[in-house]
Amino acid sequence: MSVRTEKVAGEIKHKLNSAMSKDLSEISGLGLVTISKVLVSPDLKLAKIYLSFLGNKEPIDVCLERINSKKKHIRFILAKHITLKYMPDLNFYHDDTIEYADKIQKLLNTINTDSKSDQDSDVKDSIEKS
Hints:
Blueprint: H1 3-21, E1 32-40, E2 46-54, H2 60-69, H3 71-81, E3 89-94, H4 97-129
Helix pairs in contact: 1-3
């Protein structure tokens, strides 16, 4: 990414995070919506926005549909706060890195628990042999 696309992506991320908390609170049932990453195409006409949902009451697909139904309104709000020649078309995606990291952490915890129980049994065996 060039410096310009990174700056535009950062500005979109910042403005969308504030818009999600203030202007778009009418989208009920979504819980806390956070923009985790924004990728902008080199020509600045397309933005991929990765969202994470915390405390939502509905499946992720339904949440993305609700946000996509408000895409024009979100783009309008963004255009009021950012001055660009072309406002990028917004595409929303679910960012599952938090869930993925949690899954990996649980797997590591089970491995640690299994290895500790194996070490404990080895220590008990060595004590009984002594």
